[in-house]
Amino acid sequence: MENETDVFYRELPKVELHAHLNGSVSYQTIEKLIKRKPHLNIEHGMTAIDKGQRRTLDECFQVFKVIHQLVDTEEDILMVATDVIKEFAADGVKYLELRSTPREEKNTGMTKKSYVETVIKAIQQCKNEGVDIDVRFLVAIDRRNGTEVALETVKLAEEFMLSSDGLVVGLDLSGDPTVGHGKDLLPALQRAKNCGLKLSLHLSEVKSQLEESDLLLNLPPDRIGHGTFLHPEVGGSQSLVDKVLKNSIPLELCLTSNVKGQTVARYSEHHFKYWYERGHPSVICTDDKGVFSTDLSQEYQLAASTFGLSHEAVWKLSQQAIDCIFAPEAVKQQLKQKWTDVKPHVFK
Ligand code: 6MZ
Q1: From the CA of 337, how far away is ligand 1's center (Å)?
Q2: Is the CB–ligand 1 distance for residue 174 below 6 Å?
Q3: Which of 105, 158, 301, 334 has minimal CB crowding within 10 Å?
């Protein structure tokens, strides 16, 4: 559903916890990037999956490669991050955790360190301009790159956790789920956890990753990305579900991403239903709003129309997401106050 989103969902204050920076680049920003780099001969059809279209997950990962070609300087990162933050704010997102994989680009002199510094600069600039959104950053590990790079990334994240005035709050494990194995990344993830970085891990995004999911759930992570195939009804297992429930680990659920990437056959079969019915903390997110041509308001409306949620239930869903954020307790309290303040306006 990519038509008009009802005003209720636009005005609903929202928390976005699962947004990959380079997957979130809008049509308008891609346009600016294409103008900066005409020699690449990149067209819009190569950077987003439009209405009604689907791709295999593998094809989705090809799309990220194209976007990475367009975003390869500090200047690009600054523009992309600033635009993405402002777009989330315009969509009514009050708290955003952005995640991104630090990249080195020898041709342009961008280093992994300057990459993270630039994202932080964008967050600070938006703050100084008074954009009404609290933004934090999760440094991402691409599972493709193995043990050493993962450890390097954790060190970088640790450094910035200490020096970024609370902006870097955690670590994300993502990347093509069919490549690499979680066991190789355990030492890095364990180290991250020990030094106080919060962990959000993509788990069971594709089938047959029971062993890996079990291993990673033992850490345990602070949040789970997708978790599409954790439960027994889709080939997961009760013991995995029990671990998630026992530690009350929130799930970040991205409806359109999973349907367009074909890991979920149709919206009505999305695992949101399984977890939501059990009262488990389930947070609606976008994943890659640019690539999947969506936004968070649309995702809330989709969840509501697919699963028959009332406006009051949707409100509760967005409010409960506050308890799942990685920023400290004081920020949660501020956000809860904000929700209370705007409620009469949203339900007017
Ligand atoms: C796993 C994903 C993803 O890091 O360059 N990424 N990883 N599953 C997904 N489901 C569709 N969507 C995005 O943003 C792009 C990167 O985020 C991860 C991939 O590693 C991708 O290269 P950044 O900002």
Answers
A1: 33
A2: yes
A3: 334
Give the count of beta carbons closer than 10 Å to the beta carbon of residue 58: 11
C-alpha to C-alpha distances, 125 to 18, 80, 86, nearest whole angstrom: 22, 13, 11
> With a 6 A CB cut-off, is 288 part of the ligand 1 pocket?
yes
User: DSSP string covering 114-128, please?
Assistant: HHHHHHHHHHHHHHH
12-67 pLDDT per residue, tens: 999 999 999 999 999 999 999 999 999 999 998 899 998 788 889 999 999 999 99
3-state secondary structure of 287: strand
Residue range 182-241, pLDDT digits in tens: 999 999 999 999 999 999 999 999 998 999 999 999 999 999 999 999 999 999 999 999
Probe target for ligand 1 pocket from 17, 20, 83, 99, with the most ligand atoms within 8 Å of CB: 20
Q: Contact, 227 vs 203, CB < 8 A? A: yes
Index of the ligand 1 atom closest to the CA of residue 57: 11
Question: Does the beta carbon of 257 lie inside 6 Å of ligand 1?
Answer: yes
- How would residue 5 be classed by pLDDT, with cut points 50, 70 and 90? confident
List the catalytic residues: 205
Q: 244 C-alpha vs ligand 1 centroid, how far in Å?
A: 23
Alpha carbon distances (Å) from 241 to 163, 245, 323: 37, 6, 20
Residue nearest to atom 20 of ligand 1 (CA): 175
Show me where the domains of the chain are located: 13-335
Is 3.40.50.2300 the CATH classification of the domain at 13-335?
Answer: no
Ligand 1 centroid to Cα of residue 142, in Å, is 8
Give the CA diameter of the chain.
Answer: 54
Q: How confident is the model over 125-149, as a mean pLDDT?
A: 97
Q: Is 19 in the pocket of ligand 1 (CB under 6 A)?
A: no
Instruction: Assign 42 to helix, strand or coil.
Output: coil
Query: How does residue 1 score in pLDDT terms, banded at 50, 70 and 90?
Result: very low
Specify the DSSP element, H or E, that contains 30. Answer: helix 27-36
**Model pLDDT, residue 4:** 65
